[in-house]
Amino acid sequence: MTAAVVATTAIVAVVTTTGWADPYEKYYKEPIYDTLDLVGAFDPEGNPVPDGRPDNPGNVLFYKPMRTGQKTNFSINGGITASISIPLDRAHIRSCHRAAEKQVALLDATLADKRLNYEIARLKNCASLMKDGIMFHPKSPYSKICADVVLTNPPGVLPPHIHSIPTSSKTVETSGAANLTQQQSSSPASP
Questions:
Q1: Beta bridge pairs of residue 58
Q2: Are 28 and 68 in contact, with CB atoms under 8 Å apart?
């Protein structure tokens, strides 16, 4: 079973956009036409009346300034872009993973070696000082440095010691009689 390696990337982006119209015109002149309608029809008495059509069509009276509503538009947009890529050749990725694992194992071994060197140096220094009778005071914050070091005799070496030999009155009498017998046997015979 092979594991698929998928690389994902997320990008957070803030984008600004500006929009405008060219040529930019704040105002334009709107023509105001003559809509006067006074004549064109007659009432029953013969007087002129409006007929519903301007008397002077297309005649511009004046130009009125009108806002165009044009403006420059600014917008700030934020977004997140995510991409997923699947490599087609996984052999290089697998070898890279193996190399990274070996590198981590090598670093762990180096760290363990340095820790071992530190602990052995601490053990030797604490033992050497203990042999010389030098120790931290028990209330010192540094006394715990050598707290787990135990000083014992090396194999085959006995510490200096004294044995007591018990004596009793019976033992003294026996040894005295043995001494007397020994003296008699060693002295020359008398005539």
A1: none
A2: yes
Q: Which residues contact 41 (CB under 8 A, 6 or more apart)?
A: 48, 49, 50, 51
Side-chain-side CA neighbours of residue 149 (13 Å): 20
The 10s digit of each residue's pLDDT in 106-157 is 999 999 999 999 999 999 999 999 888 899 998 999 999 999 998 887 778 8
Neighbours of 97 (CB within 10 A): 13
User: pTM for this one?
Assistant: 0.37
